[in-house]
């Protein structure tokens, strides 16, 4: 067997049309996402033959599951803790097929354009929140 190490480089420009200002970017929290709670095609782009990694899109509204401490999509109808709006996913997150968890960052303080949130978000439906986000 001949093992040959390879090095790859990627240059990615973040696309965050929902981010109105840089205020709060230095206060992002490190979080862990529970991949099973998200829907392919809605919350993340599934991997394919030429790009085997799946990718969460930034701006997904998130809530924290009380029992596990992991984060999933915010759902005002949930009863596991995700009914409390915690913030939005700050950056794109890549993960391998079959992964159960992925590391991410939570934007919980700042200014967000609700109309630009990729999964849709009506701020008037947020009745419980731990975030300090101003929606425009």
Short summary of the structure?
The chain is mostly beta strands and 136 residues long.
Topology:
Layout lengths: L28 E6 L9 E2 L8 E3 L4 E4 L6 E3 L13 E3 L3 E3 L5 E7 L1 E4 L19 E4 L1
Parallel strand pairs: 9-10
Antiparallel strand pairs: 1-8, 2-3, 3-7, 4-5, 4-6, 6-8
CA-based shape: globular
**Computed structural class:** mainly beta
Q: Name the assembly state.
A: single chain
Determine the mean pLDDT: 90
Proportion of helical residues: under 10%
Which spans have pLDDT < 50 for at least 5 consecutive residues?
A: none
Characterize the biggest β-sheet.
Answer: 5 strands, antiparallel
In whole angstroms, the N-to-C terminal distance is 58 Å
Radius of gyration: 16 Å
Structure summary, number of beta strands: 10
> Which H/E pattern describes the elements?
EEEEEEEEEE
How much beta, percentage-wise? 25-35%
Number of helices: 0
Order of strands, main sheet, comes to: 1-8-6-4-5
What does this structure look like?
The protein is mostly beta strands and 136 residues long. 0% of the residues lie in helices and 29% in strands. The protein is built from no helices and ten strands. It has strands at 29-34, 44-45, 54-56, 61-64, 71-73, 87-89, 93-95, 101-107, 109-112, 132-135. The strands form three sheets. The chain has a five-stranded antiparallel β-sheet with strand order 1-8-6-4-5, with no helix packed on it. A three-stranded antiparallel β-sheet has the order 2-3-7, with no helix packed on it. Strand 4 (61-64) and strand 5 form a beta hairpin. The mean pLDDT is 90.
């Amino acid at each position: 067997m001949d093992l040959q190490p390879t090095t790859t480089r990627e240059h990615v420009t973040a696309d965050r049309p929902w981010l109105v200002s840089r205020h709060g970017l230095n206060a992002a929290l490190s979080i862990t996402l529970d991949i099973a709670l998200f829907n392919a095609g809605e919350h993340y782009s599934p991997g394919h033959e030429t790009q085997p990694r799946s990718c969460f899109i930034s701006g997904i509204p998130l809530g924290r599951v009380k029992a596990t401490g992991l984060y999933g999509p915010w759902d005002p109808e949930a009863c596991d803790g995700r009914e409390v709006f915690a913030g939005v996913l700050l950056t794109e997150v890549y993960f391998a097929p079959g992964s159960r968890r992925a590391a991410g960052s939570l934007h919980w303080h700042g200014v967000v354009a609700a109309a630009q949130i990729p999964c849709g978000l009506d701020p008037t439906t947020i009745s419980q929140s731990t975030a300090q986000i101003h929606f425009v």
